Amino acid sequence: VRGGEQRRATVSVVGPVSPPLLLRGACFIAEDGFKAQSWRYMDDLDILLPDASYLHAAVEAVGSSGYQTTSDCYYSDLDPHYPILMHPLLPAGIEIHQRCMRWPVAGLMDNATLLSKASTIDSPFGRFMLPGDTMRLAYMVANAQIKDNGYRRRVFRLRDVFDFVGVVERNGASLDEAHALFERAGREDELLSFVLACERVLECCYLPGAVYRDRHRRWVKASFAGLRDPSTLKGYVVRDWIRLAGSVAARPRYWN
Hints:
The chain is built from ten helices and seven strands.
C-alpha cells in the first residue's frame, strides 16, 4: 500500500470515529509520516474502533470515498471486523474492526487492554491512536498464533519477521514484558514458538533467558517446512469443536 492510499482512507474515517486505533502495518505508516512503504507488503489497512457503535458510520464514511464490500455476510457477535472494503482503483482494502480478535483473550489481547496502553498522534490527516510497542508485539504474535476461524490455527509468515524487527529493534518493544503477558494468560508456548522462529530466521538471540522446549522446536521445524509446502501444516490446523459448535449455532449459514 502506498502513502496516498492511506491518506485517502484515514481522511474519511477520522470524522465519525475520532480517534481510531491503527493496527499492524498501518502503525508503521503512521509512524513514518504516512509516507510510502518500500520494506513491507500490505494487502489491507486495519483500523479498530474504540466504540463499536460507530461501525456503520465508519463504513458509510469509507464508502463515500469509493470503498465498497462485495459481501453482505456479517455477524457482529462473531466477526471481529466488517467485511473488507475494496476500492475499484486501489489494490489494498480496509478492514474496520470492532474487536481486535475473533476470540479475545482477556488481559492479553482484548480491546480494553489495547486501548488502555495506546498513545495519540496528530497528523495532517487527523488524530489517531497507536497501541504501545509491547502491545503491538503481543498483537502481532497473537494474530499469528491464536487467531482462529473455527480452528486453533498457528501460522508463521515471513512478513511477520519484518514486523518483529520493526517493533523490537526499531521501536524497542520489550520482549520480557510481552513474555510476561503471554505467561500470565497461559499462552507462553505461542510466544516462545514465534520468537524462536524469528531467531532462526534472523540468526539472533532475543530472549536469552527463555527455556525453549522440544514442542517449540518441533513447531518451528514444521512451520519452516510449511513455507515450502503448506499442506505439511495440517497437523497444526485442528478443529476447535467447542468454538465451532458455537459458531454453527449462532450462524446457521456457516457451512454455506
